[in-house]
């Protein structure tokens, strides 16, 4: 494995980590406010579909982005209606949303495009263009640093840089702003927030709005990366992001490292169909399953114990 | 939102001596009514509290005290009635409106974020602007002033979960003061405090009163009412039965007003005739999941035909004592039951093996432990005994029809109302739920009965019945270990009293030879000079 | 003070929820430019209009009874097992290994053995998430989802590298021996002079599913284990007080749940395909969630809900064929049913309770 290969794998890790990171941060805001969001997968999928569809029709990924965010937001609001307003089971609501996305994207997609659930492929302005950072061409010639800068740091799309920027921003909002204080409080003890004269319902909906927008970005990124929507293209990324969230102990910076790790795993799995270690050949199926296996190991607490926000998963019912 | 939070500049309101109380009451409620579905929690309540006074509201569990205060704090909306603050009618639609009207509330279960610092908890909901930094700095300064002024010292950077219960309560009071509350409502504030902490709280309240604050205290403890309040209102079954000056009333009169008839403060019972020891406990220790030692080497015994009462403030190891004897908490030490040692490690034992050994257990919390609220009465009537051979039809199936018949006769015998085995446990009143638990445990004819808080949340009529049942079991020659935080209950029911503090036994007393004052000191950990090895053979 | 009569809670609420779900499904059909009434007609005709349709409907229903019971048994212990898909996949592997290992002389011998194989493999796949939940506190919802993916990868690998017939282009196992063939409805009903379509896949397993439903009822409401499962599901602290070991209940309930999901394979793998193909479960594990929610975790409710979903599946296939509405429409309906009978339960319940309260007050007055 030479240096350039490593750089390429890392570069592809960043590409694959981007949607995971955005989704993970979406889950972070939601769960920090006490709303477990197993429906991330569904939001991702509906956003990917709507952005792909809108971009295919209008030729502009930016309009696609708007459509994707709108779809994901709508799903977030359904989740809020079920789990906040009607105090329903958050897990069941999330599961329902995942199926709703899986079904609707194909049914509606087929009706719109007659391509068996796919959208027409995107090209040109229908996809996000890579951003070449200043001097990347010039620096590419410098050994060692050059390729790293040109391949790894430069040349991603706007959303990747936005996702990276979202990490310190999320940290700042959570720990340095009034909104963040209240958000964290409502995920720990909603009755403390309620008796302090702040609306638990409004705060939780606000968290779901943020989650909806972030998932919308992630879904659009997927559609743009794959140049169009394909059936079930989220492929469990919503669940992986949830696992990354647990791995990250519900903290923004850890979320970055966790999703980069999962991105790296996927990148390796994509590049090497099977890996030979001496006499043992690791089959491709194992590489595909690796992120899920790793998630289970993390969940098993063999990599440190993760304590979720105390009120997460519970509807808030007033009591004396 | 920040307009009301200018606490920094004005600090506390200029003091007005309570002697010159103005004529306009701080709070006046007129005709407040509130129903929850078919239950009328508050019925046409009128009350008037003078500025700069401490007003007590007393009543039994379920009398509607907490509902009334929750209405005042905007937690519930009254169906009808008016609220006047300083003579002006106000609409309190939510807690925010209550805070704006100058009302602060300290709930029975604190409303604090456990893993936030004191400062973060104080500013939550009362921040200045979108950034935290200036709010925190301001709160730090103000907290310093407040704690100097009112003996409210608490480390502003400590996490709530690291603080003692007494300190957490101070944080709640600080929260209210930070929001410039002039009226402070405290709901059962001493329930979880040691007597020393309670005294400290009362000093704080006196200090606040001198600064012109108005305080409403909800309690069911007569002693506290007599000790600290200026006026007192009595509630019964959702209605306000009387409002009197504390100096012009007596505990006996208040008790009668509370329950609506003369209260039998003592249980009729013959002197005990203790027999052989049924259970002998030596050096019993319990360390909980957080690695905190809850029981620190407890030794005593309970004999046949006697009631041993454990007195103590909640959280001093009594719960763990019952749990380890009941078989669902692990411990170390030695427990000999009917001259056979029982396993404390939990490896070879659980609640069911304990029951098989003749230990029955009425747990402290019937909602979370003693009953499955969603189960019907007959299913609850075998809970914990569901493996007993007489409840099985064959090797595979339970004898549901037989269990229902047995439940019917038990319900009749224990006067459970309504006597319907197919009703879910949650549909019964507190007293009748407790009777179901008691019937289940007593009817199995145990050698040792563990009873925790037998009358918590139980109406007066049922209390007498439950006490009679416990005494009757004693008279059959059974051993009874009673845990209660109600000193009255301990004093009237026990044949011997053991006082616990901080996981240890502080001493042992005979009810006739002691009083609440002495027991109270021991419960606060004041060393017992007459300390003896409790339960040692004479 | 019960606010509502029992029948309203058990029947009226789910019924209204389902009607709302169907209404929105109709809206979806209408939105993609099709006629909902026409769609329903096509579905009913396709699912019940012929013995072939009925055969398919009951074949699908059999799958859903197994997975619905699987979800329900876990749910009685308040465990949300989303891993039915993976457990049924592994069950398929178990059934396949049993069927291919011996040249079975007769189905009466092969069926019990296959049942044991499927149940064991399904239970084994549920065991690890159960153990992790009981001993390490890992959230069973996420671990079971992960095990769905891992299970798909594992069985995919086994088919491709071990079970595949050498030289064949198809990623599937060898065909099961003739002695492992389960009687179809056609063969079962012929001796009684009833003619049933020859190609319909409904088979013996349907009767096994009904037996499993009866066994489920007995287990949950008549045995000590069922009593303990329900008690633990309602209150863990009370269960501890009563001497019920929580870890034991979690693991046993999940083993039964996994076994039931695994049993499904006698229908789809042994009864229908008669070989193991990739992705044989086709989402039936997930349908189990909707079926259990709709059937209120009771075998009679689960049976009825399974028939309904069997109808939707078969009708959906007809819809895809005649009206070119994708089969995924069933997934949409399934999502709406889960949403309205599960998460939005209070939306129907609260107004209904108020209605009953007002009604009973009126009666008193």
Automatic annotation (TrEMBL), chain A:
The chain crosses the membrane at residues 12-29, 44-70, 91-113, 158-175, 205-230, 250-268, 289-307. The keyword Plastid does not apply. The keyword Transmembrane applies. Keywords: Cell membrane, Membrane, Transmembrane, Transmembrane helix. This is ABC transporter permease. GO terms for molecular function: transmembrane transporter activity. Pfam families: BPD_transp_2 (PF02653).
TrEMBL record, chain C:
Pfam families: BPD_transp_2. The chain crosses the membrane at residues 12-33, 53-75, 110-128, 140-160, 202-220, 249-270, 300-317, 329-348. GO terms for cellular component: plasma membrane. Keywords: Cell membrane, Membrane, Transmembrane, Transmembrane helix. GO terms for molecular function: transmembrane transporter activity. Signal peptide: none annotated. The keyword Transmembrane applies. This is ABC transporter permease. It comes from Celeribacter ethanolicus. The lineage of its organism: Bacteria, Pseudomonadati, Pseudomonadota, Alphaproteobacteria, Rhodobacterales.
């Amino acid at each position: 494995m030479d240096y350039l290969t490593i750089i390429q794998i890392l570069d592809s890790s960043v590409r694959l980590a981007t949607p995971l990171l955005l989704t993970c941060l979406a889950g972070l805001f939601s769960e920090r406010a006490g709303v477990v969001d197993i429906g991330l997968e569904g939001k991702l999928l509906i956003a990917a579909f709507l952005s792909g569809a809108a971009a295919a029709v209008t030729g502009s990924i930016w309009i696609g982005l708007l459509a994707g965010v709108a779809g994901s937001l709508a799903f977030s609001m359904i989740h809020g209606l079920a789990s906040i307003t009607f105090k329903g089971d958050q897990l069941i609501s999330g599961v329902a949303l995942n199926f709703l996305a899986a079904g609707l994207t194909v049914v509606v997609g087929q009706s719109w495009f007659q391509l068996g659930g796919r959208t027409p492929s995107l090209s040109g302005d229908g996809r996000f263009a890579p951003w070449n950072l200043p001097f990347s061409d010039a620096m590419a010639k410098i050994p060692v640093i050059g390729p790293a800068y040109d391949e790894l740091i430069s040349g991603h799309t706007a959303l990747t840089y936005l996702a990276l920027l979202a990490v310190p921003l999320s940290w700042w909002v959570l720990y340095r702003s009034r909104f963040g204080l209240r958000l964290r409080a409502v995920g720990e003890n909603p009755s403390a927030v309620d008796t302090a004269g702040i609306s638990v319902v409004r705060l939780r909906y606000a968290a779901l709005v943020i989650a909806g927008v972030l998932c919308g970005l992630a879904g659009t990124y997927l559609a743009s990366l794959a140049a169009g929507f394909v059936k079930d293209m989220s492929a469990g990324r919503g669940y992986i992001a949830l696992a990354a969230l647990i791995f990250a102990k519900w903290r923004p910076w850890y979320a970055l490292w966790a999703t980069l790790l999962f991105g790296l795993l996927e990148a390796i799995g994509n590049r090497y169909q099977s890996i030979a270690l001496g006499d043992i050949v690791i089959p491709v199926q194992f590489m595909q399953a690796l992120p899920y296996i790793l998630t289970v190991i993390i969940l098993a607490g063999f990599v440190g114990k993760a304590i979720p926000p105390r009120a997460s998963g519970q509807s808030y019912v007033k009591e004396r | 939102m920040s307009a009301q939070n200018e606490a920094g500049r004005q600090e506390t309101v200029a003091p007005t001596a309570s002697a010159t109380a103005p004529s306009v009451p701080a709070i006046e409620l007129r005709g407040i009514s509130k129903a929850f579905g078919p239950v009328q929690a508050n019925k046409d309540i009128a009350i008037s509290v003078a500025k700069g006074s401490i007003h007590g509201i007393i009543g039994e569990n379920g009398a509607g005290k907490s509902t009334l205060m929750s209405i005042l704090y905007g937690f519930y909306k009254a169906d009808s009635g008016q609220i006047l603050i300083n003579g002006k009618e106000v609409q309190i639609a939510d807690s925010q409106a209550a805070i704006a009207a100058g009302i602060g509330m300290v709930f029975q279960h604190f409303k604090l974020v456990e893993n936030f610092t004191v400062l973060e908890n104080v500013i939550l909901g009362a921040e200045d602007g979108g950034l935290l930094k200036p709010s925190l700095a301001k709160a730090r300064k103000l907290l310093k002033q407040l704690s100097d002024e009112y003996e409210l010292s608490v480390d502003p950077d400590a996490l709530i979960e690291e603080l003692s219960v007494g300190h957490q309560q101070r944080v709640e009071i600080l929260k209210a003061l930070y929001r410039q509350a002039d009226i402070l409502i405290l709901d059962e504030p001493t329930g979880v405090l040691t007597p020393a902490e309670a005294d400290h709280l009362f000093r704080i309240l006196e200090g606040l009163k001198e600064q012109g604050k108005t305080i409403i205290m909800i309690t069911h403890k007569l002693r506290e009412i007599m000790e600290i309040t200026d006026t007192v209102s009595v509630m019964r079954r959702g209605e306000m039965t009387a409002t009197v000056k504390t100096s012009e009333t007596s505990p006996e009169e208040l008790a009668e007003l509370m329950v609506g008839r003369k209260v039998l403060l003592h249980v009729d019972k013959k002197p005990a005739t203790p027999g052989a020891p049924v259970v002998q406990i030596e050096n019993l220790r319990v360390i909980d999941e957080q690695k905190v030692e809850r029981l620190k080497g407890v030794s005593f015994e309970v004999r046949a035909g006697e009631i041993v009462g454990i007195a103590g403030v909640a959280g001093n190891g009594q719960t763990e004592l019952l749990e380890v004897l009941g078989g669902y908490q692990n411990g170390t030490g030695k427990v000999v039951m009917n001259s056979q040692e029982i396993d404390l490690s939990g490896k070879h034992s659980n609640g069911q093996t304990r029951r098989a050994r003749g230990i029955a257990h009425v747990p402290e919390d019937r909602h979370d432990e003693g009953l499955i609220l969603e189960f019907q009465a007959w299913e609850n009537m075998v809970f914990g005994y569901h493996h007993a051979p007489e409840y099985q039809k064959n090797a595979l199936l339970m004898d549901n029809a037989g269990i229902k018949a047995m439940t019917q006769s038990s319900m009749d015998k224990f006067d459970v109302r309504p006597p319907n085995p197919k009703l879910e446990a949650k549909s019964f009143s507190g007293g009748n739920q407790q009777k179901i638990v008691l019937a289940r445990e007593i009817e199995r004819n145990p050698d040792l009965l563990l009873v925790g808080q037998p009358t918590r949340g139980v109406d007066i009529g049922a209390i007498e019945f439950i006490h009679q049942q416990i005494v009757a079991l004693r008279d059959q020659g059974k051993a009874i270990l009673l845990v209660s935080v109600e000193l009255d209950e301990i004093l009237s029911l026990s044949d011997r009293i053991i006082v616990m503090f901080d996981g240890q036994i502080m001493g042992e007393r005979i009810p006739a030879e002691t009083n609440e004052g002495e027991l109270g000191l021991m419960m606060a950990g004041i060393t017992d000079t007459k300390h003896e090895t409790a339960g040692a053979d004479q | 003070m019960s606010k509502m009569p029992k029948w309203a809670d058990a029947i009226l609420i789910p019924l209204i929820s389902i009607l709302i779900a169907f209404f929105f499904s109709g809206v979806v059909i209408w939105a993609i430019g099709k006629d909902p009434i026409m769609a329903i007609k096509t579905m009913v005709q396709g699912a019940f209009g012929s013995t072939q349709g009925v055969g398919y409907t009951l074949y699908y229903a059999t799958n859903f009874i197994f997975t619905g019971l699987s979800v329900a048994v876990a749910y009685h212990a308040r465990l949300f097992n989303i891993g039915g898909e993976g457990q049924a996949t592994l069950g398929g592997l178990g059934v396949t290994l049993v069927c291919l290992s011996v040249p079975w002389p007769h189905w009466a011998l092969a069926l019990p053995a296959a049942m044991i194989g499927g149940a064991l493999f399904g239970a084994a796949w549920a065991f690890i998430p159960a153990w992790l939940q009981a001993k390490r506190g890992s959230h069973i919802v996420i671990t079971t989802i992960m095990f769905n993916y891992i299970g798909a990868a594992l069985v995919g690998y086994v088919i491709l590298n071990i079970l595949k017939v050498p030289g064949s282009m198809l990623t599937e196992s060898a065909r099961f021996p003739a002695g492992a063939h389960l009687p179809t409805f056609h063969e079962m009903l012929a001796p009684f002079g009833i003619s049933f379509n020859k190609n319909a896949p409904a088979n013996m397993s349907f009767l096994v599913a009904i037996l499993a439903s009866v066994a489920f009822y007995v287990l949950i409401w008549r045995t000590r284990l069922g009593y303990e499962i329900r008690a633990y599901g309602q209150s863990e602290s009370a269960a501890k007080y009563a001497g019920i070991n929580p870890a034991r209940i979690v693991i046993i309930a999940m083993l039964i749940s996994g076994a039931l999901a695994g049993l499904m394979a006698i229908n789809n793998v042994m009864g229908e395909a008669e070989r193991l193909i990739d992705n044989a479960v086709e989402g039936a594990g997930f349908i189990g969630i909707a079926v259990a929610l709709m059937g209120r975790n009771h075998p009679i409710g689960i049976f009825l809900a399974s028939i309904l979903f069997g109808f939707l599946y078969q009708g959906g296939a007809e819809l895809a064929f005649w009206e070119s509405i994708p089969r995924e429409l069933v997934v949409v309906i399934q999502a709406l049913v889960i949403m309205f009978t599960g998460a939005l339960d209070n939306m129907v319940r609260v107004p209904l309770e108020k209605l009953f309260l007002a009604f009973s007050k009126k009666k008193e007055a």
